[in-house]
Amino acid sequence: MLIYDSINCPVLYVGDTHVPPIEGVYGVIEVKSGLSKAELLDAATKIEAFKRLAPRDLTLIRTRQYVTVHRPSRPFGIVFGFDLVDNSLDSLLSNWQEANLTIHDVNYMANLVVVLGEGLLLVEQVDWILGQIGPLLDTDEFVRVMLTQQKRAVAGEPPLDVQIKAVIERTGDNTFGRFLVYLLMMLEQLKLGIPDLGQYVDPNLPMTIHRES
What we know:
alpha/beta, 5 helices, globular
């Protein structure tokens, strides 16, 4: 399931199939009727493949006074299961961590795993300086934190006073409501790029400078 900007994003057609340009896609939800280890790994692999397609090229936008550049946000990927199959939330967490080790790059990992009526798996950030604990759902922020930690380690500097860990929220019957809240939080953080339709016709065409009123 793709979530895209249906108001501002034009839709292309291939036969009877409508295809939104990937610049207009906020993210993807891999839906599974039963979430076993095999199904989770399959969903994680598909999310990785989708995220690798997401553009990171700069968009040029002309206003009345000047031309600005904009880099689109990294999209999200969610695994949504209606039930557990031969699994538990605890073992599913281990399965998810195993999948993330295989993918390795946080750019391409799933942001959230949901099992209806059971709970959610997500990444949590603990800020020891501010004394705050909260979900780390935004891919851009996740990447920023990890890259900062890596740069500090290479430079021999002390790490950030934050802890990042995968956790289980056992929300039971409230799982779907919590999922909707997290989905809205992710959508609020994202800023899409502007589709350059000329590139879909001929990749050799020059980049379009988009006008903004």
